[in-house]
Amino acid sequence: MANIEFQMDFWTYPAAFFAMFFTDVLYAYYIQSVQNAQALRASLWAAILYILGGIVVIGYINNPWLLVPSVLGAFAGTYVGVRYKLK
Question: Does residue 19 contact residue 52 with C-beta atoms inside 8 Å?
C-alpha cells in the first residue's frame, strides 16, 4: 500500500473550520431568501454555498484530517445560525 503523506499547513485547518462555519451561517440567508420567494438572491446564496462547500471537500479529499475542523465548523455555524436567527 502506498505511503500517503498529508501536507500539514497550519492555516489549512482554521480555513476549513471557518469555511464550514460560514457555510452553515449563510444557509440561514439562503433559506430566508427561498421562503421569501427571492429567486435571484436565493440563487446567489446557493452559488456561494457551493463554492465554500466545494473548497472544503477538495481539501479533505487530499487530507482526511480536515474533516475534524470541518465538522466542528459546521456544528458551530449551525449553532450560531439558529441561536441568532435572522429577523
Answer: yes
